[in-house]
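quick one, 179 residues, struct below
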Amino acid sequence: MTRTSDNSLAQRLIALIKEFMQFGMVGAAAYVIDVSLFNLVQHGPTGFLSGHPNSSQLLASAIATVFSWLANRYWTYRGRTQKNVAREATLFVIANLGGIAITQFCLLFTHHVLGLTSPLADNIAAYIVGFGLGTAFRFIFYHYIVFTGHKNRGAGDDADSGDHTGDDAEPRVPAAVRP
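---
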């Protein structure tokens, strides 16, 4: 391996780690929003959706999804957003529907197959098992499908620190590491 390719690989790895950390921070905030709203509407003082865990989880995750898209678009993937915002938002919604479907399946399985309906069972099914599996699905979907575009950046914008793919699926290597 040449020195240039070592640097390129190291830069790509650093960029991926940075992306994963930012994705994780946004995800953690979305998780808090999701869990809090779910428990408020399902088990809280008003509990207006009490007895309807799937509806509660759907409402909570819809609100958390809006937060997540904005935070990921304008922070985590700010150097990879697509010019076509409607296309990007549609792909983001599809990714999150996949994550929600995974969580919904875990809740349905827990309630209707295992017969576990306590608040603890709901939270474990939705927010440990379902959310964990859904998060892995979303990260892969966001990285390879949703946030793959390029934006025109001005001088001083440091959003791009690594190898990213565009609509043509060709890797883009920063000029500093090109041979």
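The chain has one domain: 23-150.
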